[in-house]
Amino acid sequence: MTSTLQEGILVGCGNPLLDISAIVPMDFLQKYEMKEDDAILAEERHMPIYRELVDGFQAEFLAGGSVQNSLRIAQWILGQPKVAVFFGCVGEDEYADILMEKARSAGLDVHYQIKKDVPTGTCAVLITGTHRSLCANLAAANNFTIDHLDQPLNKALVDNALYYYISGFFLTVNPPSIMQVAATALAKQRPFLMNLSAPFISQFYMAPLLAVMPYVDIIFGNEAEAHAFATAQGWPTEDLREIGKRLVALDKLNPARPRIAILTQGCDPVLLIQRDSVEEFPVTRLAVHEIVDTNGAGDAFVGGFLSQFVQGKSLDVCIRCGNYAAGHIIKNPGCTYTGEPQFVE
Length: 345
Ligand code: AP5
Ligand code: NA
Known about the structure:
By secondary structure, the protein is α/β, with parallel strands linked by helices. The protein has helices at about 25-30, 50-55, 65-80, 95-105, 145-150, 150-160, 175-185, 200-205, 205-210, 225-235, 240-250, 295-310, 315-330, and strands spanning about 10-15, 15-25, 40, 60-65, 85-90, 110-115, 120-130, 130-135, 165, 190-195, 220, 260-265, 270-275, 275-280. The chain binds BIS(adenosine)-5'-pentaphosphate and sodium ion (NA).
């Protein structure tokens, strides 16, 4: 990092989740009717998963939660503490302590809302080979309320930020909070960034997603998420470039800042879609033996991107740093990193 950034320049809201990650056989997935690349919300029938992972599969506990992952990665690359502020809801328990410790040691300025009687959320990460299947039990994370953002200190943090990032995942929790942050960003003419997060968001939460879309300056997603959005919209195309063009053409409140879509596709090139152009950014393919797990790859991509974006770097640099960060965390368990960042602009 070259110059010093303003503290709290980047604000994010999301679900703080502790990942319970384990390598499991395929029949474990089948038992819970999950696919090898799923991301779902836990229903009653999934509740035994967490205990089973701990008791039978030497599960690892890792800090997770999509937005918190991205902000931790951004902090790691920036190397200057408290550039990013995070809001989300946890319980008052050991899992919350672990999340807080991991986030703070990454340099993140964490402002959790705490709900005493509800456990901190968890996410089962079921690893089969190079795939990962996610089952989130939001628990306390689902109890986030807008009044947390209205607390004077928190309100000041939101007002003073220059960049905002919220996941599509948070649409299942508290759309009014998202709309409030988005409206602040619009009023102050500051970029508001969002993520499609998972196919189920487009399938089941399209109404709140479309409500916020006019505020979204940059939308991130992977292939499956882009296809799910297109299908839910009834768009007659499976071409990712075409889907990207339609995403950026959706209604927008601030026409002075045309929407940008950034679509990742695993080891294939990242697509940067703007009104009149589609650009490709190559990914350095990792050998199979280098891959520990891809859990958090998309989140790390966003983290790397944000670390440069808040420094006012070009989209080209932001995307290359996104690919760098994703490549790094794939070589580590979950969304974790080792050593000092080695990104060269
Ligand atoms: P998860 O969905 O695993 O994270 P992700 O960051 O989206 O990782 P994916 O593996 O899905 O990557 P992607 O498909 O998005 O990106 P792509 O493959 O295109 O989620 C992880 C976290 O989500 C967990 O910590 C969990 O807590 C949280 N979570 C789950 N449910 C939640 C909920 N309801 N609310 C909140 N949080 C929730 O790749 C992206 C980039 O990676 C590429 O552009 C490239 O740079 C790189 N890359 C990918 N594959 C390769 C490869 N083979 N070689 C080299 N580079 C690669
Ligand atoms: Na993803």
